[in-house]
Amino acid sequence: MATADVKDRIDAPIEEVWAVVSDFIGMIAKMGTPVTAEGEGIGMTRTLEVQGARIVERLEELDPANHTTSYSIVEAPLPLTGYQAWIALSDGGDGTTGIRWWSTFEPVGSEEDAVKLCCSIYEGGIAGLKKILAPQ
Predict the structure, then answer these.
(1) Are 115 and 1 in contact (CB under 8 A)?
(2) Domains of the chain (ranges, CATH numbers)
(3) DSSP H/E element including 117
(4) pLDDT at position 136, please?
(5) Which of 24, 61, 67, 78 is the Cys-Cys partner for 89 at CB 3.0 to 4.6 Å?
(6) Is the pTM of this model over 0.85?
């Protein structure tokens, strides 16, 4: 089992960050990625079109009290299987929010390459969140 893990800080209060992160479909749409939804709540799926690839993810957990969400990949042309990811927020106490985005999975091929791929996705996602939440 491999793990990819990225931690960062966002210059916005935790409730503002959670409002975006907890919106399973809206978070992706606000980043400009085409996305469609099927179902509602836990178990719903989102289908993303990224660089010509179709990725289907399922919402596994949404915990507002702990500012944590989790999703799995149902279908994707990625070098990994058994993928489960989590996003957890923490209050920085100074109007900022700590974010941790991590996953576990079984790599197909090089573990190092699969971890790098996942970390680059999380870094891009966090950069997208920062743009969405930047003061206007």
Answers:
(1) no
(2) 2-133 (3.30.530.20)
(3) helix 111-133
(4) 60
(5) 67
(6) yes
